[in-house]
Amino acid sequence: MPSERDNGIRYRHRCAWATKDPLLQRYHDDEWGCPVEDDRAFFERFVLEIFQAGLNWRLILYKREAFRKAFAGFSVLRVASFGKQEIDRLLHDKGIVRNRRKIEAAIENARIFSRIIDEHGSFKNYLAQFDARDEAGLLREFKKRFRFMGPKIAGSFLQSVGKIPAPHDPDCWKSNRP
After folding, report:
1. Are residues 21 and 44 in the same domain?
2. Core-most of 75, 106, 123, 161, by most CB within 10 Å?
3. pLDDT tens, 72-105?
4. Residue span of the structural domain in which 7 resides
């Protein structure tokens, strides 16, 4: 498996999908599967997962800064206030994926996020009420509550924020396997 010299002492093995592109390497090493603390970061990952559906994750990561700009720095409250004018703007933004269903889902989900934050104090507190061992129940909850959120997208989001274990190749330095 490909590797990278780490601090000049040992080699760091990664999952195969993260070996050829520096942006994928950074995402794998620094974000994927790492616990998230703040609501903006949760919402950013949530939106990116929705837009990734059916597409290549690399494409989404390369468009991440454009998404960040288009979606007001992933401010839950600002995105929740988006209306027809912002939808039209986003549909013409060549820097992002211009899919009406995904754009509308991101905005509606911001409104849902906002209600969850009001009810629980934070999105992290909301997730904490669920037992990570009941992955099926958590996926059902997400499908029921959020738009454009089937089990694959929900699972990918929950892996990305560290709520459920992210699958790593056996030789990956982030693998929990012996």
Report:
1. no
2. 106
3. 999 999 999 999 999 999 999 999 999 999 999 9
4. 1-34+168-178
